[in-house]
Amino acid sequence: MDKANQANDEMRYMIESLANLKNVDQEIVFEAMEAALAAVAQRVYKEPVEVRVRLSRSTAAYEEIVRVWQVCAEEDIEEPSKQMTLADAQAIDESLNIGDEVVEAIDPPESGRIGAQQAKHIIIQKLRAAERARIVSEYTNKIGDLVTGVVKKVTREVIIVDLGGVVEGLLSREDLIPREIIRVKDRIRAYLADVRPEGKGPQLTLSRRHPNMLAKLFEIEVPEIAEHLIEVKAVARDPGGRSKIAVKSNDKRIDPKGTCIGMRGSRVQAVSNELNGERIDIILWDDNPAQLVINVFDPFPLGNIVIDEGKNTMDIAVEEEYLPQVIGRAGQNVRLASELTGWVINVMSEDELESKRSGIGEKIKAELCEQLEIDEEITELLINSGFTSIESIAYASDNDMLEIEEFDEETAEELRERAKQALMTIELDMQEQLGDVEPAEDLLDLEDMTRRIALQLASRGIITREDLAEQAVDDIVEVDGLDEGSAGKLIMQARAHWFEEEAE
Length: 504
Known about the structure:
By secondary structure, the protein is an alpha/beta fold. The chain has helices at 3-22, 26-42, 86-92, 113-140, 211-221, 223-226, 256-261, 266-274, 289-297, 323-327, 332-341, 350-372, 376-384, 390-394, 398-402, 409-434, 441-444, 451-459, 465-469, 473-476, 484-503; strands at residues 50-55, 62-72, 83-85, 101-105, 146-154, 158-164, 167-172, 187-196, 203-207, 230-238, 242-249, 279-284, 302-308, 313-318, 344-348. β6 and β7 (167-172) form a beta hairpin.
């Protein structure tokens, strides 16, 4: 075997070894080698030149090693060592035109110590970049899954988890379960929340507090969830304290709650142990919001449930003796129930609910009587039929108004006109106070926004959707027509675009 073939065999072996060691495709190693050899060849010249190297993928021998010039117009020449005028190019080959290349075969480089170091540096850089890209690609597809690793380092701010190979995950203290103790060499499981390419390598963000970690753990412990016979509909967590998970069966023969609990509580206990003893309530999902709330608070008996779909709130009456258990320590049970169901839940005694309903009813009644100039009897008919605001009356359809037996078309039309006039008067008064200030279109476009509320917000300096998104409920709850539930709902609508941008 001659020296050239022996060198090619050694090159081929080195390429295969590097590809296996770094877990990257051989093509990437070939490209790194070609870039390194081109850089070494360029060192022969005193000026910057463009050199192209191509190695055979089967033998690792040189297929091509050339110096390259770009053919340009004379006035566009900026680097004569890399560019050539059209006249000079056509003196070599008459068929060449602007934009073509002139290539000249050169001898393979003989790399000295400095050249070898340069080649090694280029290869290492390219392989690191390829390895990082591979990790980002592989783990981006795993976002939302659980990963398992060994704790490599523990600091005050972060825990570094070895996920295998050269992959590390970062678990911040804020993403740990409260009172959880993690030590070096502990084997832990975490939720992969994000993957971001960074200069020093991909950053994999882990979490043990994420609500979806609970769902993923049940997917592991309950085969029926993985097989889609049981579906996890919602999760609410107070990490380290208590969690609620709502499940629904897609097979009528399967009891979803009992299946998730397991024989003698074995399945739910396994999940609880993984989460540092977190207590877990398994709730039977129901598409009916009221029934879902009843299921959430089972076994405590609930009294009247008053639902306000417009404000997305539920007022729930509970017997005095059960109030502490239903509310939970520091309001934990109600808070988790609200998070699970998506409704703002207010728990109170029967007397408190009746008093609240009476108070709200009297306030609404007084406002409608004054603004529409109607008597209490007509006002009560409107309120009992769900017309509890000037806007709801002004924009009601004929059919909606005529569902009230005591109303005819003339009465319905008269009430609508009075409501529209009242709205116009209110808006004019507000506009006069505001002067030239006008609510922005993006604020007015929010689903549950009315012009009257928008004008009141504008009077407080809240002009745009972004202004509203930055507010807290307490900042706007005093606006006429808003309570805590409706204020919170408007703020979340204003913030919706934040979450859409994050998802993208």
